[in-house]
Amino acid sequence: MPAGYDYVKELGCGKFGIAKLCKDKVTGEEVAVKFLPRGPKIDKNVERELVNHRSLKHPNIVQFKKVALTRTHLAVFLEYASGGELFDRIAKKGRLKEGEARYFFQQLVCGVDYCHSEMVCHRDLKLENTLLDQDSRVKICDFGYSKSAVYHSVPDTAVGTPTYIAPEVLLDDQYGGNSADVWSLGVALFVMLAGRYPFQDPKAPSDIQKTVQRIANVEYTFPSDLDISAECREIIERIFVADPGERISIPELRKTPWFQENLSVAVSSASSPVQQASPQDVQELEATLKQACISDAPAESGSLHPDTVPEDDDDCL
């Protein structure tokens, strides 16, 4: 386990790494630690994700804490959101009532609005990348596809999850990441309310090609038994517009009476002071990542114990 931390449990594993819940032996704070194998997979995409995430500090974004090296892994310390994925909550309920969906949507919008104010577009917004803390506060995570206007070029590749992707991402060589994020927010709202994806073919929901065609044609229908207000439908209709220049923007969305309804103090004051990473912070992070590219190299002084990831977890990496 990491020096100074106790292992609590495994949080999950995927093709790029494993996540573990650890507890600080001194403070008792629980943190999520992602372990990525050192070597060529620590590339520019990983660097972009960590640099962008480190530059953001907001109540509705999973807090980036630090990185460290072991002999075999890069360890990324993140805020632990104990409430799990918002997607799982919806899956258990089937659908959310309009008021509850608006509560989560308001927080999502606030978090994304902050990202955009810091010139970062997420490009993979979805309910699976939306976590909840113990107080059901939304925490946006996974900035692997994000781009920053400060550090990177404009979006020009079709990335993201097919069911959430905007038409212009499919059709244009270059596109506005902010407006594409708004489209994904609309999909998230629709799923919360309807319990299904808006652009899936009801007769062939697993056919990705048909989903893509329906997105390009902005072809969707509300379920006949969906009980939502006319104002809510209008928000969704103003988001699902093929031309990103005609699509409602986040500032416009935030001014609508529907969005403003029951907007809690916690949400309305969600923006926190800007805490962009300094050039020195970025240089230090880039230096650590450069070292992480070297497989099976010595850990840096003061970093984690080399036995961070037990051998019986190797098949998860």
Automatic annotation (TrEMBL):
> Keywords of this protein's UniProt record, alphabetized?
ATP-binding, Kinase, Nucleotide-binding, Serine/threonine-protein kinase, Transferase
- Which residue intervals make up region (Disordered)? 296-317
Residue numbers binding ATP: 34
Presence of the UniProt keyword Magnesium in the record: no
GO cellular component annotations of the record: cytoplasm
Q: Name one GO molecular function term.
A: ATP binding
Q: Name one GO biological process term.
A: intracellular signal transduction
Q: Would I find Kinase among this entry's keywords?
A: yes
Tell me which PROSITE patterns the record gives: PROTEIN_KINASE_ATP (PS00107), PROTEIN_KINASE_DOM (PS50011), PROTEIN_KINASE_ST (PS00108)
> Which residues does UniProt assign to the signal peptide?
none
| Limits of the Protein kinase domain | 5-259
Q: Which family does it belong to?
A: Belongs to the protein kinase superfamily.
PANTHER family tied to this protein: MAP/MICROTUBULE AFFINITY-REGULATING KINASE, SNF1-RELATED PROTEIN KINASE 2.6
Record's protein name: Kinase super protein
